[in-house]
Amino acid sequence: MVAEDIIIRPIITEKSIMAQTQGKYTFEVNKKATKIDIKNAVEKLFEVKVKDVATMNMTGKTRRRGYQDGKTSDWKKAVVTIDTNPTEKKFLKKGGIEATSSKKFKTSIEEMNV
Predict the structure, then answer these.
(1) At 79, which CATH number?
(2) Residue 75 to residue 55: CA distance in whole angstroms
């Protein structure tokens, strides 16, 4: 799956906005996406370091319009915790030389802050 197909839209509620101060962002995701797919998609799209992904399958609600009963569609929700204090990773290169990763990560997702 492509990263743009995994993340459908952000969930903007009062509770999710309060959780953003702790580095937790809520998204509606593809029902077939795994936690690893979601992690890779968020890291690619927003250039942040993901610490944890929690997923929930949300069942559709029954609705009534006039005399007909219906049901809204089922969907999947993901709460992604990002690293708000990313540090450079140190590793050993060939020959035992110590090196650090040069990739820079953001500390928040600016597109979500409305």
Answers:
(1) 3.30.70.330
(2) 11
Overall number of domains in the chain = 1
Residue range(s) defining the domain that contains residue 51: 3-85
Q: Is residue 22 a part of any domain in this protein?
A: yes
> Is residue 38 within 8 Å of 78, Cβ to Cβ?
yes
Sequential DSSP letters for the chain: --HHHHEEEE---HHHHHHGGGTEEEEEE-TT--HHHHHHHHHHHH-B-EEEEEEEEEPPPEEEETTEEEEPPPEEEEEEEE-SS----EEE-TTS-EEE-----BSS-GGG--
Residue 103, domain member (yes or no): no
> Tokens 């979500």 correspond to what residue?
112
Q: Note the pLDDT tens digit of each residue in 7-19.
A: 999 999 999 999 9
pLDDT tens digit string along 26-52? 999 999 999 999 999 999 999 999 999
Residue length of the chain: 114
